[in-house]
């Protein structure tokens, strides 16, 4: 499990993550929701050792993020950040190969190649494997990055807003893949989402943050309540049941 | 025009242009391309060494092979450092000269001429001068680096910005002093401001070569890590790269190489930009195993070709940097425009 113990991170004097203690990353998919500036990405940064906390301790399966060698952590935890701009011209295959870096340090074995093939196949990228990333559509590129993270073959996969700038079809595609990764491959996926309805339909558990604090942490259905969501987003949200599934309406 | 969604999925870009681009890139493997470039370098080196010999071949060879050796050292330093710098800073427009290496060299030389005159400057012990310049340049860049990158801030952009500001300051300060020099002193100083590869001091050349080898020794074990760094810091950290330590090592390696070769031949970073960007399009792979040696060999082509033109065509009627910048700039423009047209 991923555990934060009294973790605080400040930018200047403003705490962005404020004395948070939480354990997450259980089986299945965990969605992390909350308004802009709630501290979701900062939390990911702290877990993914891009940021160091001002106070508190972060552990992944008991490994202290601050003291465990980065290369060891990379075998347990894979993180996909929001903006993935690559200056060099890489093909899809090149990119997915990088996922094996923690294991191979760049010298690929047959075992590594199997993982790469699996990841490419899993994300249905076979037709595009030799395409350059700048020749792909947004949805394909996002899948390529998810394939890289999948090839890393870690227990935990953290995805920071992977649906950004995707259309309806590609959003659904990514979410289905995330669900399959959890169900078929046993990955523990933690995913930052803005669309709470995606969170409700694909996640097992929802963690909601606001102002640097965790305000809700419960099975998806329990978080999908008008009072909870309104408090998280500071906006009236209606929740209706459609075909037995809770759907949030916030279009005013 | 309506497009079937399935075709946009498989062909986001016009296919004809795409295939042409792919063909142009895959006509030969990176290894073949590198070997081809190596052959060109050997040809140019032979042309430089063996043609147009005025007197004894042995004497000419001894003098010229020193120049070629200096070229190898300089091309390695400039090629490796520029490509590594590009990867660390995630851009392909800046060169390490932005950190003020050249400006610092100019400032130190100007200070010496300004304070003790050109006669003293010329009489100055070469080894001491070289040592002072290397130490001061490395110290300056490493200080700047640890201050702005090693601490809590960790911002490459801030470091570059401070580097640019300080570089400009050094340059203006040097120019201000140069304006007050007497014409003879100024003449001597100006000569020292242009890179010259002919007749390098043998001891200094050996020392510089040693430092460049040291710099390369820092870079070579990190070749594969450099590939990962092309993904950017967040992704590299996610893949288990100890970003801070790796970048620090690379930066020190780069500083040492540049400082040593600048102190040997003068400001040399001018052709790094051309060489590195040509290497990216020539190498046919983003991997540093290919781009780094390609950049070094292209540097050799520039230096050998430039020196040949300077000596044999222009009869020393110019400077090496003018020749290389002119030819390289034209070629670079051609590449950019061709890319734009496609």
Side-by-side strand order of the widest sheet of chain A: 6-7-8-3-9-10
Characterize the overall form of chain A.
Answer: globular
Number of separate helices of chain B: 15
SSE ordering of chain A: EEEHEEHEHHHHEHEHEEHHEE
**Residue runs with pLDDT of under 50 for 5 or more positions of chain A:** none
Give the end-to-end Cα distance of chain B, rounded to a whole number of Å.
23 Å
Mean pLDDT score of chain A, rounded?
A: 88
Q: Biggest interface pair, residues each? A: A-B, 36 and 28 residues
Oligomer: heterodimer
CATH class identity of chain B: Mainly Alpha
Instruction: Tell me the major beta sheet of chain B.
Output: none
| Count of DSSP strands of chain A | 12
Q: What is the CATH topology classification name of chain B?
A: ABC transporter involved in vitamin B12 uptake, BtuC
Low-confidence blocks of residues of chain B: 1-26
Structural class of chain B: mainly alpha
Structural class of chain A: alpha/beta
Q: How much strand content do the residues of chain B show? A: under 5%
CATH superfamily of chain B: ABC transporter involved in vitamin B12 uptake, BtuC
By DSSP (H or I, 4+ residues per run), the number of helices of chain A equals 10
For the sheet with most strands of chain A, the description reads: 6 strands, mixed
Shape of chain B: globular
What does this 3D model show about the protein?
Chain A has helices spanning 40-47, 70-73, 92-98, 101-104, 110-122, 138-151, 168-185, 196-202, 220-223, 226-233; strands at 2-11, 14-24, 28-33, 55-60, 63-64, 77-80, 156-160, 188-192, 205-210, 213-219, 238-242, 245-249. Chain A has 252 residues and is α/β, with parallel strands linked by helices. In chain A, the strands form 3 sheets. Chain A has a 6-stranded mixed β-sheet, sandwiched between helices. In chain A, a hairpin with a 2-residue loop joins strand 11 and strand 12. With 342 residues, chain B is mostly helical. Chain B has one domain (56-341): ABC transporter involved in vitamin B12 uptake, BtuC (Orthogonal Bundle), CATH 1.10.3470. Chain B has helices spanning 5-10, 15-26, 30-50, 57-89, 101-123, 126-150, 156-179, 183-193, 202-219, 223-229, 233-238, 243-265, 272-283, 288-313, 320-341. In chain B, helix 3 packs parallel to helix 14 (288-313) and helix 4 (57-89) runs antiparallel to helix 12. Residues 1-26 of chain B have low confidence and may be disordered. The A-B interface holds A 48-50, 69-75, 78-81, 84-90, 94-95, 98-99, 101-102, 105-107, 127, 135-137, 140, 152 and B 8-10, 12-13, 18, 90-92, 223-225, 227-228, 230-235, 237-242, 280, 286.
